[in-house]
Amino acid sequence: MWIGYLLGTRGKGDPEVGKWGCVCTLSSGAFEKDNTMSISKTIGGLATIGILAFSANAETISAGYGWEDGNGTILGSFGNLASAENVSGFANTGNHSLMLTEDPVSGTPQAYLGWVTGLSEGDSIFASLFAFSPSDGASIRIWGNYTSDVNDINSYDGSAGGENTYPDKDEWFELEKGWTFNSAGGDHTGLVIVARMYSGTNDHPGTYAFVDDLWIEVSGDDLSGVEIHFAPAPGAIALLGLAGLAGTRRRR
Predict the structure, then answer these.
(1) What is this structure's pTM?
(2) Which residue in 1, 31, 117, 213 is a FRET match for 59, CA 20 to 30 A apart?
(3) 248 belongs to a structural domain
């Protein structure tokens, strides 16, 4: 049995409905009758939508964000990330995507796309996104960072590693990575899903690239405290309330 909510018109992998803004699903072998979902939270001044509380002993939680709200961008950043813009008219699916720009070119800027908190030792996290690396632009890798404070996405507590694959140029290319959560004896409490930028080289001469269709999936023995956060547009929570609840599934 599973429940979820839909902001937008299509769940990733569900061709019968249109592009999603945010989708969350819960898979559970024994789903309790009084399960509830909270859909708003403020982190560092940003309202986020995600899975905030479940009383069930869930097996899998998954959520997606496609920037279709028209305003949501990122949860935070590190390094010389000059801008993160929600742009229209260019996307992997739907009409919106995220445009990242580095300025000045130095180091490896990071855009915090999603954040999973309340994780336990051994939980499995899978994330995927579509990146577009223009021939005159920058490139993207998918990465993960540990955090130590459930209320602060900037509480960096070490790298969780990432995928070394660069996207092919001038096409939407899917990047994905899986992690097994290392709690470091309780010091690590969350995992940030990161887009790392690579600019100003012979292979990547420019300073901009695009991201779309982020998907996060968490599996574990007890996910009752797990929360998945994105950065939707202001007012998205109210819109979600009007939209109601809708179930969806994604297979990979």
Answers:
(1) 0.75
(2) 213
(3) no
